[in-house]
């Protein structure tokens, strides 16, 4: 059975939309686990009153993304899950999303799978996976590489985000859970899928499965909107900072080939120090 794990902190309207989309799935061969990390907007009451089918795991208010996901994954595994999925609450799954993920999961049972992301407002593709070069520190965006007729089926990628990430239980048995100690919020998903790929588990972007997302709602975008010294500090050192230098260093040390590490770190530091004001 597939278990979908959704960590939430407030933003009840997004959580409702996400759960309602899961209720509309063409297959209901899954269970949903919501990790409510101390929400103060009535999330716990609404879940208990309106979504009785959802397993709720309470948090302390200090879990952030990675520890929240891990808490949900532990509960799912205790329930007997053989497939796991991490999902953010600010996504809306297309009605056949789960069915199309399970279609390929059955054919590639040891693969980690992500989904094609579409802008919820325009319906246009916004994320279709990346193939990353440690040498040049550049990503090749598959959306720009693939023609529309090629945007179907599975395509190999270097890593995947945690929005709609399907993980076979045997991956967790082999490499454990997400690295909540060193990567408490950002990069934990890219790290996890990179580690899994190095352990021999294929990592694919499933172009047949679609998620509607809100690109403007990411923590990185909200931090950059401030354009202030405080925002710059949060960008570089805050737990939710997309350019967090400590998290980037941990990610690099864990995943970059040793011979390329010095140049990769230097390149990454320069990009993060200057990128806040350029984007």
Automatic annotation (TrEMBL):
This is Glycosyltransferase family 2 protein. The keyword Glycosyltransferase applies. It comes from Hymenobacter edaphi. Residues 4-114 form the Glycosyltransferase 2-like domain. The lineage of its organism: Bacteria, Pseudomonadati, Bacteroidota, Cytophagia, Cytophagales. InterPro entries: Glyco_trans_2-like, Nucleotide-diphossugar_trans. Belongs to the glycosyltransferase 2 family. It comes from the Bacteria. Keywords: Glycosyltransferase, Transferase. Signal peptide: none annotated. Gene3D superfamilies: Spore Coat Polysaccharide Biosynthesis Protein SpsA, Chain A. GO terms for molecular function: glycosyltransferase activity.
């Amino acid at each position: 059975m597939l278990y979908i794990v959704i960590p939430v902190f407030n933003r009840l309207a997004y959580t409702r939309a996400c759960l309602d989309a899961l209720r509309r799935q063409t297959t209901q061969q899954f269970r949903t686990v919501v990790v409510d990390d101390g929400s103060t907007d009535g999330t716990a009451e609404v879940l208990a009153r309106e979504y009785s089918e959802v397993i709720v795991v309470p948090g302390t208010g200090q879990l952030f993304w990675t520890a929240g996901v891990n808490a949900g994954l532990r509960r799912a595994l205790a329930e007997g899950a053989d497939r796991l999925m991490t999902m953010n609450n600010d996504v809306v799954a297309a009605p056949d999303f789960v069915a199309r993920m399970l279609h390929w999961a059955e054919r590639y049972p040891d693969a980690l799978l992500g989904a094609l992301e579409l802008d919820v407002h325009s319906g246009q593709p916004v994320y279709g996976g990346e193939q990353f070069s440690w040498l040049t520190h550049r990503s090749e965006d598959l959306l720009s590489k693939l023609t529309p007729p090629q945007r179907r089926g599975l395509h190999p990628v270097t890593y995947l985000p945690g929005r709609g990430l399907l993980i076979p239980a045997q991956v967790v048995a082999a490499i454990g859970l997400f690295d909540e100690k060193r990567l408490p919020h950002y990069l934990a998903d890219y790290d996890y899928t990179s580690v899994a790929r190095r352990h021999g588990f294929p990592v694919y972007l499933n172009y047949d499965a679609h998620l509607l997302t809100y690109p403007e709602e990411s923590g990185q975008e909200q931090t950059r909107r401030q354009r202030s010294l405080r925002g710059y500090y949060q960008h570089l050192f805050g737990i939710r900072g997309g350019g967090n230098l400590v998290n980037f260093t941990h990610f690099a040390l864990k995943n970059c080939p040793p011979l390329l590490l010095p140049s990769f770190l230097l390149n990454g530091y320069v990009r993060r120090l200057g990128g806040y004001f350029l984007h």
